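As a point of orientation, let us examine one representative protein, giving the amino acid sequence and backbone structure tokens.
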Amino acid sequence: MVASIVNEELLEKSKKFFEDKDINNTLDHYRKAIESIDRTKLNNKSQYTEFLQTILLFCRENNLPEQEALVLRALGRTYSLFKNHAKSMKYHYKSLKIQKKLGKKVETAEGLIFLAEDFEVSGNYDKSIESFKEASEIFRDLGKLRNAEDITKEINRLKEFSEEIVEDEYMLKQFHVDNH
């Protein structure tokens, strides 16, 4: 119950900031709101995506590409939270396109990590590793070695996991487990 109240309060604060056209605080409070969501008690998912669509329209109408990219990322994160990874990836790609065009390297690397997470959840481990590697390269170029090392750990974890899956599938086929 407490998480739900905190979530609602943060979402309302986010809406108030948007009324004042303070997009950065709007998105900051929105991020905190979705981080406090109790997914087991979430009834009205559309209120989150509709709110973000309103902000997205405002950013586009007022030529605010940096904020637009952040709203697109928030949409991606929201859809990921709601377990709609296809839509999540769609919005992450759109956000990344803008971030790359604007030359926002840190934001691009962060977006690649979110995209990699969606690929992983959808079972596309090769694409996930590819996305993680691209993010790691950007962080290395920026001198953010700790971030790059954290990503390297994720890549190694994914490689091990995907190797286990291949081995398991091989064993299942060898012993015709799927035929029974």
Summary: The two ends are 46 Å apart (CA to CA). Residues 97 and 103 are 10 Å apart (CA to CA).
